[in-house]
Write a structure and sequence with these properties.
The structure holds two protein chains of two kinds. Chain A is α/β, with parallel strands linked by helices. Chain A has a single domain, classed as P-loop containing nucleotide triphosphate hydrolases (Rossmann fold). Chain A has helices at 19-22, 46-56, 79-86, 104-115, 120-133, 149-161, 181-195, and strands at residues 10-17, 29-33, 38-42, 62-69, 72-73, 89-92, 139-140, 167-171, 198-203, 218-223, 226-229. A six-stranded mixed β-sheet of chain A has the order 6-8-9-3-10-11, sandwiched between helices. In chain A, strands 2-1-4-5 form a four-stranded antiparallel β-sheet. In chain A, helix 7 links the parallel strand 8 and strand 9 (198-203). In chain A, helix 4 (104-115) crosses helix 5 (120-133) and helix 4 (104-115) runs parallel beside helix 6 (149-161). By secondary structure, chain B is of the alpha+beta class. Among the domains of chain B are: 401-558, Beta-Lactamase (2-Layer Sandwich); 578-606 and 613-772, Alpha-Beta Plaits (2-Layer Sandwich), CATH 3.30.70.1230. Chain B has 15 helices and 30 strands. In chain B, the strands form four sheets. In chain B, strands 1, 2, 3, 4, 5, 6, 7, 8 and 9 form a nine-stranded antiparallel β-sheet that branches. The longest helix of chain B has 76 residues, at 17-92. Chain B is rod-shaped and about 190 Å long. The chains are: A alpha/beta, B alpha+beta. The interface between A and B is large, with 45 and 45 residues.
Chain lengths: 233, 773
C-alpha cells in the first residue's frame, strides 16, 4: 500500500447528508482524518453509525458540501472510479453484510479479487493469517449462517483488514464481541495506522476505546446536531 | 496507485460521458451533420435542377414543336395557298388564256418552290393540263390531254427549259384517262375548300406525294379543279435534318397513325411494300414514337414521359396547323439529351460532396487524434505532477526522520521511500568496506513484504565488474541483470532469491570517489526519477562518509582497549521447564518419531496486575494451578507437561508404538484441568483467562542439548494444538481438531465450530470438547 501523503485522507467539508436517504441529521458535517490517525466517533444509534460510515464511503447522497477521500470528491467520480476507490476502504459493519450465496472465505477475499490483480493463493494466505490473528482456527469456509456470531465478527475483521486498506471504517466489533478479540483488533488498528491508514472507530459508548485511549487522535460524537467534537480529558 | 489495483480511481478515466461526448460523439455528429447537410444540399440542388431541366425541356420541345409546325405549315402552305391563288387567277381569266395563266403560274412555282411536284388543272368537260418537272434538270414538262382525230387520247408533252424555250415534244398514249375519275378531282365534289388526297407513291421517281385540290367555277359556268402535288420526301428530309436535343427526332402521322413524314421514310416505305396504308407506326421500328402515339390517343396532346429500355423519353404530340387534315406531329427525345448537363452537374456535386466528406472525415480524424494526443500529454503531465508530489512527500518523510545522518541509526527511511517512489520491488544501500575490497548491505527494503534486511557482504573478487562499474560513477539500468556481465553475479547472489530481473544501480559518491551503491530491483524508470534517486544517493553518501569516519575512530579505540574478559562459565540448569515427566522419559536419549502423540496446549492470557499484593496473589494462584496440573498429569499418566511462558504443553503417547489410550487420557486430563482452572479462577474472582487446544497425530520428539538435556516435542501436531488453543472460540473452552473429534466422538460430547482452511494444511473442521458422554 502506498502511503497517501497529499493532505487529509478523508475530509468531510460541510457535507449535508440527505435525511431521506440516510436518516442522518441534515446538518453540515465537517472533519478531517489524516493518514495514520485514529478517530473515535460515538453514536448511540447503530443505524446512524452505519449511515455515517456510508457517508464517508460516498454512499449517501449529499444535499450540500463534499466528502473527499484521498483528495477525490465522491460526487465527481464515475462509477468505475467510485467502486475502485471504495476498494481502498475496509469496513466492519453491523448491517448484515454477508451474502448467503458464497461461503465466508470467498466473501472475505471477494473485494480484493474484484479490485486487484492479486493471486488468490496470496489472498488466501493473507486472509488465513489474519483469521488466525483474530482468533479463528483458519479461514472459515462455511456459509455465513452456519458460523457463530462471534466468529462472524472475527471474519468481519479479517475482511476489513485484508488488502491493507487506506481507510478503515470500523463499527465496533469489540463491544459485545469475544473479549480476546479486543487485543487482536487493537493490534491490527495500530499496524494499519503505522502503514499510513486512517481509522474511524464507531463506538456506542466510550468505555470500549479507553484501553486504546492514548492511540486515539480525536473523538467525535454523532448527535442530532451533527458531528460534535468531544474534548479528550 | 497500488500496482495490484485494476482501476486507479485517482485517474479520471476516459469513460466519462462528457469526455466521450466531447471527444468522440461530437466530432462524429459534426461530420455526420456535414455529410447530411451536403447530401441535403446536393439532393435539393438535383431536384431543383431536374425540375428546371424538365420545365426547360418542355419549353424547348414546345418551341421545337412550334417551329416544326411552322415549318410544316410553311412547307404545305405553297400547295394549299397556291391552289387558292391559282384557282382565283384561272377562275376569272378568259378561257383562252387560262392555260397560259396555269402554265405561267405552275412554271414559276415549280422553279421557286422545290417541294411542289406538279400542278393539275381539269374541268368538268374532261380537259386536263399538267405541269411538272421532267427527269432532266431545270426542264419542265407541260402536258395536255389531247383527243386525237381518231378519237384516241394522248398526253401531249412539251418540254421547256428554264428560259422558257421549248426543248422537246412528244406524245404518250393516255388510253382512257379521264381526270374526272381521279381521287383528287372527285374529293372536291360539292366542296369549295381545299381537299387533300391520301399520300401515294410515285414509283418512277420514288416520291411520296399528296395532292391538294380546289374546285371552282369559271366565269363561263364550267367547274374546274386545280390541284397541286406536293412531295413529302422534302418534308421527311426536313424532319430528318432538324435537331431535337442530341438524338431526338420528329415524325408526322395522320389521324389513323399512318406515317406522313419522318426519318428513314423511304426505308419504311420499302418495308411496307410502297403501300402508304401499310406505313403505320410499328412499335418494333419506332418504339418510342409508338408509345408517344399511344399516350396521345389516351391522354391527348401534350408532352408525356415514356420509358423505353430503361431510358426516359419525352414524347410530345401536337396538332399541326391548318391545311394539314388532322396530322399529328410526334416528337420524341431522350430526357438525358436535355438533362445531361443536370446529371453532370449532379455528378460534380456528388464528387464535390464526396471530397468535402473525405476532408471532413480527415479533419474529424485529425481533431480526434489531436484530442487524444492532448489527453495523453495531460495524462503524462498528471503523472509527472503525481510523481513530483510523491517525491516531495517522500523527501518530506526522509527530511523529518530523526538522526538521518547519524551513521549509528538504521537508514530505513531511505530505502523505504526509494522503493515507494521508484515503484521498485526492493531498494538496497550498499557500502564499500576495507577501502573498496568488499561491499556490505546496510539495508534492503522489500516493498511487497514490507520487510527490511541487511548485513550481506560481498567481495571484490566476486563482483569485480560491478565494483568497477560503480567506481566509474555512472548510474546504469539493466533490464535483465542475469545477462549483463556487470550484474550477472549480483543477480545470482542477491536478486535470484527475490526473482527480480531488472536492476538500476546508482553509485553513492563521496569526496574521494564512490562509497557504495544504491540498487533498485524491478524499478519503474519514470523520467525525472533520477533527481530523487541522486538526492537519496547524496544523503546515503553523507551517511557512508560519517560511518567510515566512525569506524576508523572505533578501530583506533578498539586496538588500544582489547577484547573484554570472557564471561564466567554458567552452571548447569537445574530446571528444564517440565512440570511433570513420566519415568519413561529417562530412557529417551535421542530424537524419535512418535506416530500417535496427543498434545494439549493450554494458553493463558496475560493477567493485568497493578500492585505487589496482586502479584503475590497471582503467583500463588499460578502455583496452585501448576500443582493441580501436576496432580492431574500423574492421575492420567501423561508423558510430560512443559511450561513455556504463558503456555503449557501436555503430551501423552510419546512412544514409538502407537498408544491408543493416550488421547483418552489426555482428553480426561484436559477436562479435569479445565474444571480445576475454572474453580480456582472463580475462587480468585477472576474470569477464565485460558483456552485449550488439542491435536493428535505424529510428532517428532527427543532429548536435545547437553547439560542440561531437555525433552522437546515439535511437529504439525504441536502446531495445530497451539493453533487450536490460540483460536478457541471462548475462554475456558477446549478446541480440538477433526482428528481428535474422529477418535473421541463416541465417548465425548463435541460442538462443531465449522470448517476452516489453513494454508499448507488444508481444510479441516474445529470442534469444542464439551464433556464426557
Amino acid at each position: 500500500m502506498d502511503v497517501y501523503a497529499s493532505g487529509p485522507l478523508l475530509e468531510l467539508n460541510k457535507a449535508i447528508p440527505s435525511f431521506d436517504e440516510s436518516g442522518l441529521p441534515p446538518v453540515p458535517f465537517s472533519m478531517k482524518l489524516m493518514p495514520g490517525e485514529c478517530m473515535v466517533v460515538e453514536a448511540r444509534d447503530i443505524g446512524h453509525s452505519t449511515m455515517f460510515a456510508d457517508l464517508c464511503s460516498g454512499l449517501v447522497p449529499l444535499d450540500g458540501g463534499a466528502v473527499r477521500f484521498m483528495g477525490l470528491d465522491w460526487a465527481d467520480l464515475g462509477d468505475r472510479e467510485l467502486n475502485a476507490l471504495r476498494g481502498r476502504i475496509g469496513r466492519v459493519t453491523h448491517r448484515a453484510s454477508w451474502p448467503e450465496f458464497v461461503p465466508i472465505h470467498l466473501a472475505i477475499v471477494l473485494q480484493q479479487l474484484h479490485h486487484t490483480t492479486r493471486q488468490i493463493d496470496d489472498l488466501v494466505q493473507d486472509a488465513a493469517n489474519l483469521a488466525e490473528r483474530f482468533g479463528l482456527p483458519g479461514l472459515p469456509t462455511e456459509s455465513p449462517s452456519f458460523l457463530p456470531e462471534d466468529d462472524l465478527l472475527r471474519a468481519s475483521c479479517v475482511r476489513a483488514f485484508l488488502g491493507q486498506p487506506h481507510l478503515l471504517l470500523l463499527e465496533d466489533p469489540v463491544e459485545g464481541g469475544p473479549a480476546e478479540l479486543s487485543n487482536s483488533f487493537l493490534a491490527a488498528i495500530t499496524e494499519a495506522r503505522d502503514r499510513g491508514a486512517g481509522v474511524i472507530w464507531l463506538v456506542r459508548n466510550n468505555a470500549v476505546w479507553q484501553e486504546y485511549r492514548q492511540g486515539i487522535t480525536a473523538t467525535w460524537r454523532l448527535a442530532d446536531d451533527g458531528l460534535v467534537a468531544v474534548r479528550m480529558g | 496507485m497500488s500496482s495490484e489495483e485494476i482501476i486507479d480511481p485517482t485517474v479520471q478515466h476516459d469513460a466519462s460521458v462528457r469526455r466521450v461526448l466531447l471527444h468522440m460523439v461530437l466530432p462524429f455528429v459534426l461530420i455526420i451533420m456535414t455529410v447530411v447537410a451536403i447530401a441535403w444540399v446536393g439532393i435539393n440542388s438535383y431536384r431543383t435542377t431536374s425540375e428546371g431541366v424538365s420545365v426547360l425541356t418542355r419549353e424547348l420541345l414546345d418551341a421545337t414543336q412550334q417551329y416544326i409546325g411552322q415549318e410544316v405549315g410553311d412547307y404545305i402552305a405553297p400547295s394549299a395557298a397556291g391552289n387558292l391563288i391559282a384557282g382565283g387567277m384561272i377562275e376569272h381569266a378568259p378561257p383562252l388564256v387560262s392555260d397560259k395563266v396555269f402554265y405561267s403560274y405552275g412554271s414559276t412555282m415549280l422553279q421557286k418552290i422545290p417541294q411542289l411536284q406538279s400542278f393539275y388543272l381539269a374541268d368538268d368537260q374532261g380537259n386536263f393540263t399538267l405541269i411538272t418537272r421532267s427527269s432532266t434538270k431545270d426542264v419542265q414538262d407541260h402536258v395536255r390531254l389531247v383527243t386525237e382525230p381518231d378519237g384516241k387520247k394522248v398526253f401531249q408533252h412539251t418540254l421547256y427549259n428554264a428560259m422558257g424555250q421549248k426543248v422537246g415534244q412528244h406524245d404518250v398514249p393516255a388510253n382512257d384517262y379521264d381526270p374526272r375519275t381521279r381521287p383528287w378531282y372527285k374529293n372536291t365534289a360539292n366542296k369549295d375548300t381545299i381537299q387533300w388526297t391520301q399520300p401515294y407513291l410515285f414509283p418512277s421517281d420514288k416520291q411520296f406525294v399528296m395532292t391538294s385540290s380546289l374546285r371552282f367555277k369559271r366565269d363561263d359556268g364550267h367547274e374546274m379543279v386545280f390541284a397541286t402535288n406536293i412531295s413529302l420526301n422534302e418534308l421527311s428530309a426536313f424532319l430528318d435534318k432538324i435537331k431535337i436535343g442530341k438524338t431526338g427526332s420528329a415524325m408526322i402521322v395522320d389521324a389513323n397513325g399512318r406515317i406522313i413524314a419522318g426519318r428513314n421514310l423511304m426505308q419504311h416505305a420499302q418495308a411496307a411494300g410502297w403501300d402508304p396504308d401499310k406505313m403505320v407506326l410499328d412499335p418494333k421500328v419506332y418504339p418510342v414514337f409508338a408509345l408517344g402515339y399511344d399516350h396521345y390517343r389516351v391522354r391527348g396532346f401534350g408532352p408525356k414521359q415514356v420509358e423505353w429500355d430503361g431510358k426516359t423519353y419525352i414524347a410530345m404530340a401536337s396538332a399541326l396547323p391548318r391545311y394539314s387534315q388532322g396530322w399529328i406531329l410526334l416528337i420524341a427525345a431522350p430526357e438525358n439529351d436535355f438533362g445531361s448537363f443536370a446529371h453532370q452537374s449532379s455528378r460534380q456535386s456528388l464528387q464535390f460532396a464526396a471530397i468535402v466528406t473525405v476532408f471532413s472525415l480527415l479533419l474529424g480524424g485529425l481533431y480526434i487524434r489531436q484530442l487524444r494526443k492532448t489527453e495523453a500529454v495531460n495524462r503524462r503531465l498528471a503523472v509527472q505532477h503525481a510523481q513530483v508530489a510523491q517525491e516531495s512527500g517522500a523527501l518530506q518523510q526522509v527530511a523529518v526522520t530523526p538522526q538521518l545522518f547519524d551513521p549509528t541509526a538504521e537508514p530505513l527511511v531511505i530505502t523505504e521511500q526509494l522503493a515507494q517512489v521508484a515503484g521498485a520491488r526492493r531498494a538496497s544501500l550498499w557500502r564499500f568496506l576495507h577501502d573498496g575490497a568488499a561491499m556490505v548491505c546496510d539495508d534492503t527494503y522489500d516493498r511487497t513484504q514490507n520487510t527490511h534486511s541487511g548485513g550481506f557482504e560481498m567481495g571484490r573478487e566476486e563482483l569485480g565488474k560491478l565494483f568497477e562499474a560503480i567506481e566509474e560513477g555512472t548510474s546504469f539500468f539493466v533490464g535483465n541483470a542475469a545477462t549483463d556481465e556487470r550484474t550477472t553475479r549480483f543477480e545470482r547472489l542477491v536478486m535470484r532469491e527475490a526473482s527480480t530481473h531488472a536492476l538500476a544501480v546508482y553509485p553513492v559518491r563521496g569526496p574521494h570517489g564512490a562509497l557504495g551503491m544504491l540498487a533498485l530491483e524491478e524499478p519503474i524508470m519514470l523520467p525525472h526519477l533520477q533527481y530523487f534517486v541522486e538526492l537519496m544517493a547524496s544523503i546515503a553518501g553523507t551517511r557512508f562518509a560519517a560511518q567510515g569516519a566512525l569506524e576508523a575512530h572505533q578501530g583506533a579505540v578498539g586496538d588500544g582497549a582489547g577484547l573484554p574478559a570472557p564471561a564466567a562459565t554458567l552452571g548447569v540448569t537445574k530446571s528444564d521447564n517440565l512440570l511433570m515427566r513420566a519415568e519413561e522419559m529417562a530412557a529417551v536419549t535421542g530424537a524419535s518419531i512418535y506416530p500417535a502423540v496427543a498434545v494439549l496446549v493450554v494458553s493463558f492470557s496475560d493477567p493485568v496486575v497493578e500492585g505487589n499484593k496482586e502479584t503475590t496473589t497471582l503467583i500463588a494462584l499460578i502455583n496452585q494451578l501448576a500443582t493441580q496440573v501436576q496432580s492431574v498429569a500423574h492421575e492420567e499418566q501423561l508423558f510430560a507437561v512443559e511450561v513455556a511462558g504463558h503456555r503449557m504443553i501436555c503430551m501423552a503417547g510419546c512412544t514409538t508404538e502407537p498408544d491408543h489410550t493416550a488421547l483418552f487420557r489426555l482428553a480426561n486430563a484436559a477436562l479435569k484441568m479445565r474444571e480445576t482452572f475454572m474453580a480456582a479462577l472463580a475462587a480468585a474472582d477472576l474470569e477464565p483467562v485460558f483456552t485449550m487446544g488439542m491435536d493428535f497425530g505424529p510428532a517428532f520428539g527427543g532429548a536435545v542439548g547437553q547439560a542440561p538435556t531437555v525433552f522437546n516435542l515439535w511437529g504439525q501436531t504441536v502446531s495445530l494444538a497451539e493453533l487450536m488453543a490460540e483460536s478457541a472460540i471462548d475462554p475456558g473452552t477446549i478446541q480440538v481438531t477433526e482428528r481428535v473429534y474422529a477418535s473421541l466422538r463416541d465417548r465425548y460430547l463435541f460442538r462443531s465450530r465449522g470448517s476452516f482452511f489453513v494454508p499448507h494444511l488444508g481444510l479441516g473442521r474445529a470442534y469444542t470438547l464439551a464433556a464426557r458422554r
